[in-house]
Design a protein that fits this description.
The protein has helices at residues 4-31, 106-111, 114-126; strands at 46-52, 55-56, 59-66, 72-78, 81-84, 93-101, 137-141, 148-153. With 155 residues, it is α+β, with helices and mostly antiparallel strands.
Length: 155
């Protein structure tokens, strides 16, 4: 059995190690675990239109999934237009693009006026299902703007 002095000394060392571990963990959370000197990835603004037989898609979600498998980002399509501003842009590269029915939480949906609710429901029914799969659409995002894309869907 340890004496009271030895037990106190052991607890003191253990407490010191736990405090050091907490400081290191906090430091990693604040600074990140990336490699030192690695610059942040470049992103560029992307915008465009989504139409169905040349008519603007009133409500949808557009999703860009990097073919390199690193990123998936989405934006709302409203009245046929979508946008990723520079601060939330996409890294240059090749992407699979999917057009998905607009999904709103029930509370958010109920806040829309009745005519918008009807338009959302109609858009969900008219959106061709083939564009919800990877590989149906593709896009290349270049290093230099403008990255203005157009997707004209067909039934």
């Amino acid at each position: 059995m340890w004496s009271t002095t030895e037990t106190t000394a052991r607890w003191s060392r253990l407490r010191g190690l736990l405090q050091l571990a907490a400081v290191v963990a906090c430091g990693l959370m604040v600074t990140g675990c990336g490699r030192p000197g690695t610059p942040p990835r470049q992103t560029v603004p992307v915008s465009g239109t989504v139409t169905l037989m040349k008519a603007p898609v009133p409500f949808a979600t557009i999703e860009f999934a990097s073919k390199a498998g690193r990123d998936v980002q989405s934006a709302e399509v409203i009245d046929g237009k979508f946008q990723f501003p520079a601060e939330h842009g996409l890294p240059p590269g090749e992407y699979h693009v999917r057009i998905l029915p607009y999904e709103a939480e029930i509370e958010a949906f109920q806040k829309f006026p009745a005519d918008k609710q009807r338009a959302i429901v109609a858009a969900r029914k008219s959106l061709p299902k083939g564009y919800t799969r990877d590989g149906a659409l593709a896009a290349t995002i270049s290093n230099s703007p403008p990255n203005e894309l157009t997707f004209d869907l067909r039934p």
